[in-house]
Amino acid sequence: MTTPTFPSVLWSPDELAARQAAGSIVVIDTRDPQAYAAGHIPGACNLRDVFTFLATSSPKGLQELKDSFSSQFGAIGLSGAEAAVLYEDAMDTGYGQSCRGYYLLTWLGYPKVHVLNGGFSAWQAAGLPTSTELPQAAPKAFPTDLQQADVMLTKEDVQAALGTDKVLLDVRDIDEWIGESSSPYGKDFAPRKGRLPGARWIEWYRFMKPGPHGPVIKSPAEVRAECATAAISAQDDIYLYCFKGARASNTYLALKQAGFDKVRIYFGSWNEWSRDPRLPIDAAVLGGDTAPGQVLPGVLVHT
Questions:
Q1: Which listed CATH number (3.30.70.260, 3.40.250.10, 3.40.50.1950, 3.90.660.10) goes with 10-125?
Q2: What gap in Å lies between CA 80 and CA 91, rounded to an integer?
């Protein structure tokens, strides 16, 4: 019997079920532990930190990010030989958390990473089995000789891009874009509201569409059409950001599947940028006495 192959990053529930039967796969559930305990894909390991870990882009912060996830991915059985497939509840309810795991593994250089398109909801709707049993993962040594992918941006990279032809693409929810809220965790969770100076905006939901079992990532042609509404082409050098890299990771996957090659993520995103008062923000939509287009105080440093 020939082992089926699925070249796309996005796998359907049937594709995942077939790949599980063929073996050599680690399924990663990124939902909260309570949802995982109530029912999950058989054999899946729960790794909530994929969503909750807040990163900074300093050398120390990026080293902590690398060390933490190299350890955690190894603990659930990723050695480089296995394919990793991540899922969340549904593509529009988990803020892109499964895609955040995909991005982290991509950044670490892991060779085989996939996302369940449609999430756990699609798996259930397809009539596939679920389980409440907690699997015993066989820890393995996460590979240390991987070449990290050039997909990670620091705040210094973003500072240097301000006022250039780099496309800063904000994919946050509308209340964050217009300055009504600072984050998905609450309006005042972060100290400042606004957006990066010169950023363009496409809300992350727009890269998905209804599928037979829930939202799925749009086709390459549809993704390119969405980008065209903000005058963004596949030839542009795109810098993505959101609040902490999850929604940006959802968009990153959509863009890469659509043939956009020059895409990177500012993973620290608004959570990091807003906490440094030296960094400028566009306050054009904040109301009050702020003049249209005014950039609130910050030091614009090109490095």
A1: 3.40.250.10
A2: 26
